[in-house]
Amino acid sequence: MRPTLSILSDDLIAQILSESKRVMSETGMEVRGERLRHLLIDHGLTTDPSGKRILIPADVVESAIATAPKSFTLYDRDDQPHAEIGGNEVHFVPGSSGINVLDHRSNEVRLATSTDFLEYARLCDGLEHIAYMATAFSTNKDVEPQVSDAWRLYMCLVTSKKPVVSGAFSEHGVTRMAEMMQLFRSDPAHLVRRPMSIFTITPAGRFSYGEVSCQNLLDCIAAGIPIEFVPVTLMGLIAPVTLVGALVFHCVDVLTGITMAQLVKPGTPVLFGGAPATFHMQAATSPMAAIEALRLDVAYVAIAKSLGLPTQAYMALSDSKLLDAQAGAETFGGALLAAMAGVNSISGPGMLDFVLTFSLAKLVFDNEMCGQALHFIRDINSLDDLPTTDLVSAVLESEHLVTAPHTLKHWPHELYLSSGVLDRENRQNWAEGGSKELLQRAGSEVESRLAAYTPIETDAAIDAEMRRLIQEGLNEQRDLPVIPS
Questions:
Q1: pLDDT attached to residue 227
Q2: What predicted TM-score, i.e. pTM, was given to this entire model?
């Protein structure tokens, strides 16, 4: 038996879905991308009296859900199966998309550079409990913004073989990035069959999809890139402050995205995702680690699972500005809830400050938090311990079980042994080791792992072609940054 969460009754899920479909059919969605809009109308959808909103009948939504894959496989750069996305499979992935880094060497918050990103990619490649990569933070300080998404993908692809969660920030960014990934497959159709990335599509809020999101959706479908629909549902600002009301708004955004994708191409891999937050009525901020946001996360995941759809959520992150007690509490609380809820792709590790700031020190700390959460949700079964007759006799005879055959057989799998990031020493040994606090331990772990990184080889012709594709999109900048060895 696997530890799970039960947060919504079947009856309430049915009511929320019914209301969501009613809103989709009566209020509809403003689809600002003209090409996608015309495709939807060509598929028989109509508009509201103003002509601005596409109306989506309930039967169309239900047909779309039926054609969406219940699971799919992510493959690595070498075309090997890497992660199954669906069911109760749980994978942690770094959050996106920050603009700053918290430098673990100087404790300074600053704009990120390509060197920062390369260190992140090298670090992430070796983290045991971070399943795959993400283009986690921008490097606009040394690369023009219109190609920064492709540049970050490039740095991931030449640093690690793991799949990547990414996305484009311009109307034509997906095409360039898809062409880069196709270089690692025999042809474009091969990438469709063996995807190596998940791309994020974010609705604009207030029941609308913007031009960039609409074009990116179409380009992802054409390239066979699985899509995670990630509304930023702000409870109390652009969504109801109550859980059930916010769930309806959230489901309308996601189900509209899924329906549009399936109408354009039935069978397109999709994830029912989100990045909800609350609107803090005093600070006027949007905490993503607020307990109400976490409750919304696990609730919409329950709805998605009732529909048999793969899931994504922004959890295992913190709104704190530092790697401190708040960061630890928020991250582990979110990680454990996400793991118990069975979220398939959990975006968040490494993130601070309302996903504005990325920290390598926090990423290695979060790797431990994710590892413990994954350890907690393992199936619970009897392991040679019922009946306990032999174990009782052993402890009475020896006064301990340290060397008992049962312990020697099972402890390597049953006990989670953390790295030096977490303090598990007694006080005397901790003091003799320099009385290091968390940030010092995490910083040391970052440096140790960076030193242990083993580079991967990339075919020179593929490398040159990826760089050419990126340089083609430059405006005033002449050269791409030099990649440190």
A1: 98
A2: 0.97
